């Protein structure tokens, strides 16, 4: 058994105030914990594999292709491969999302 806590996972930061922690990385998939500060954005990007995003905490918006929807804790959003997507923290507190990529890009 292997147990990984979010706080122990390696941190990757980008210039947009987003903290990404890779929790799982194997050929069959990848899990990344994303934390976005209020008013910040994970910019639009394309992933070459299917992705789903599960909101762990907070409120925000998810954009997939030309659709943009409000999301909150407990919601899951699917993003098909090769479709542009982005995450926006529109709330006043942390916006934490677990991003699962299948298979690993």
Fold and architecture overview:
It is built from no helices and 10 strands. A hairpin with a 4-residue loop joins β1 (11-13) and β2. The protein starts with 10 loop residues before the first strand and ends with a strand. The strands form 2 sheets. Strands 1-2-3-10-5-8 form a 6-stranded antiparallel sheet, with no helix packed on it. Strands 4-9-6-7 form a 4-stranded antiparallel sheet, with no helix packed on it. By secondary structure, the protein is mainly beta. Helices cover 0% and strands 58% of the residues.
Short summary of the structure?
By secondary structure, the chain is an all-beta fold. It has strands spanning 11-13, 18-26, 29-36, 41-45, 50-57, 59-64, 67-72, 76-79, 85-88, 95-102. The strands form 2 sheets. It has a 6-stranded antiparallel β-sheet, with no helix packed on it.
